[in-house]
Design brief:
Number of helices: 7
CATH class of the largest domain: Alpha Beta
Shape: rod-shaped
Helix content: 40-55%
Oligomer: single chain
CATH architecture of the largest domain: 2-Layer Sandwich
Number of strands: 5
Largest sheet: 5 strands, antiparallel
Strand order of the largest sheet: 2-1-5-4-3
CATH topology of the largest domain: Beta-Lactamase
Length: 215
């Protein structure tokens, strides 16, 4: 019994140390299992759960003892808990004596309520008005070109994919590509006609002739 008391006295120091490390948003509780009705011998930042020294063991603690979870593992971590409208992330370390008997618990409860609220707000902001699966017909591919030239090159790569070179294409194919570039608004850009002519290695007048045929 005296050895068990000495072990728990050392864990009192650890509990205080942990509370100093993590701040007021983290509750640290040391349970002495000699009397589970008043097992909370040290409680730091008890405002999180509303408990004080002499508080009884929690429902989770009872489950640990009843199901003898401590025999299979040394701790459990990141369980979800609810208390007074707060959401807690709870972890419990099993304190054992020299012969492996469980004599205490050191519990850490992190109040994650405000972080969950923040995550929810960030998610709403990130997904604001974005199309979801099932809205494919309304989906618009967003592109962020660095220049007019890069925009035109991207458009041409897409339109010319799988096709022969420009000079080997038939007239209707050429007209179709010019029409698609026009639909994309490429020729509304300042220098658009020049950039396309250079990319396709044709003259500007040639492009204008194609455009008149489209009109």
């Amino acid at each position: 019994m005296e050895k068990d008391i000495k072990i728990l006295e050392e864990y009192k120091k650890i509990a205080k140390f942990m509370s100093c490390c993590y701040g007021e948003n983290v509750e640290v509780i040391l349970h002495d299992l000699i009397d589970i009705n008043e097992s909370g011998v040290e409680i730091y930042n008890g405002h999180i759960s509303g408990r004080k020294k002499g508080a009884p063991i929690s429902e989770l603690g009872m489950k640990i003892l009843k199901e003898k979870i401590y025999e299979k593992q040394d701790f459990i971590s990141n369980s979800k808990g609810l208390v007074g409208g707060k959401v807690l992330r709870s972890s419990t370390y099993f304190i054992k004596n020299e012969i492996g008997k469980i004599i205490g618990l050191i519990c850490v409860n992190i109040n994650i309520t405000k972080y969950l609220e923040l995550a929810h707000e960030i998610e709403k902001f990130v997904n604001f008005d974005l199309k979801t699966k099932g809205d494919e017909s309304l989906e618009i591919k967003a592109d962020f070109p660095h220049s007019v030239k890069s925009m035109i090159n991207t458009a041409l790569i897409e339109l010319l994919k799988g096709k022969e070179s420009w000079k080997d294409m038939k007239m209707d194919e050429k007209l179709n590509i010019i029409k698609k570039l026009q639909k994309k608004g490429i020729f509304d850009l300042r220098g658009g006609v020049l950039e396309v002519s250079e990319a396709l290695n044709i003259s500007e007048p040639t492009i204008y002739r194609y455009l008149t045929k489209i009109d």
